[in-house]
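Students often ask why we bother encoding 3D structure as a string. The short answer is that it lets us treat folding as translation between two languages. Here is a chain of 417 residues written in the first language.
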Amino acid sequence: MNLKIRLVGMSFLQFFIWGAWLITIANYWFGNNIGNPSQFGKIFTTLGISSIIMPALTGIIADRWINAERLYGVLHILAGLVILYIPQVNDPDMFFWCMLVAMLFYMPTIALSNSIAYNTLKSNNFDVVKVFPPIRVWGTVGFIAAMWITNLTGNKATAGQFYISAIASFVLGIYSFTLPACKPNKVVESKSLSETLGLNAFSLFKNGKMAMFFMFAMLLGAALQLTNMYGDRYVDNFKEVPEYADLFVVKYSTIIMSISQISETLFILAIPFFLKRFGIKYVMLISMLAWVLRFAFLAYGNPADGLWMIVMSCIVYGMAFDFFNISGSLFVETQTDSKIRSSAQGLFMMMVNGFGAVIGSFSSGYIIEAFFLKPDNTFDWKPIWLTFAGYALVIAIFFFFLFKHKHDPKEVEGFNH
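And here it is in the second language, the structure alphabet:
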């Protein structure tokens, strides 16, 4: 089979596993009365905790002792076993621990899948910069496909979403053992423990501009998972309003929310233009303002005459997500020494998807429970979304005044090839 097609299959399944439950888990949690909003917030912290702990450790194991594709397969099989068990759990605390174990196995596979793809392409003399992005985009396609399947099969509020995810995990786990060998380095450069774990990148905090950048990365990271946590649940809740209950957008809320991921694939193509025209600071600022719009559109939207707002919130998500993550990664690339560049990228992801995600998941759960939970245990959605919009706006304003960076067109030359 064509090598690129095999990597496409890996990328598709990698994110299909995640898409089967990430957007719809709130429907399952609250629909089955497993716990309250603050306990649900803790569930999403498992993604952040895993992102902080596991990628560096599994990277060391793959670099030194075990073929990356074999470690990748084992982790997916183990994750699948835990995800398969999750529907048997009704206690919120036990649910948290099961999800944490599943994410400790799953989250490092994202980085490993990139490593396997890079290694395989380089070993076969492919142009990685040219060939990898079209392969990676199939991951987003897999995520969208899983969302659609979960919704169309009637599983968006049932245990079925976890069974779909677990089956895909087992398939990918077995499939990974057929991938080209990514052997560990027999000769490993002598490094200190801090260098091996990428901790030397923390020295960047001595630089005022970089410290400011990483702090804003963490603060914005707190907002990145909020619509994944609550977006589908919000649209699905319109079924409680008789005039909206039978509308397509309510019955198939997950399909509507998948417009966000479709938008994400399209806005990637616009990044080179915006970076060249406006520079990294203003592209990241545009991202922050897009988050304000994402939340504000949800606050005022509805499935009937306000459907356009819900759709627009999904469209601006692509700009909000891509413009920060990709331009932020480029900023780190251009501002750090080559010796710590990989570690610096790891630190950026740790601040955004690790610490930021943990802070956002914890705090949003407690804030919703304390201020926006009605006596009948339903959500007061409009002020929830407006609070999130206000948070993103405050970050944008502080970022504009506090983050000092002069645009250099040379920084974006790599996007023009």
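Translate back mentally: Residues 1-181 form a domain with the Growth Hormone; Chain: A; fold (CATH 1.20.1250.20). Keep this in mind for the problem set.
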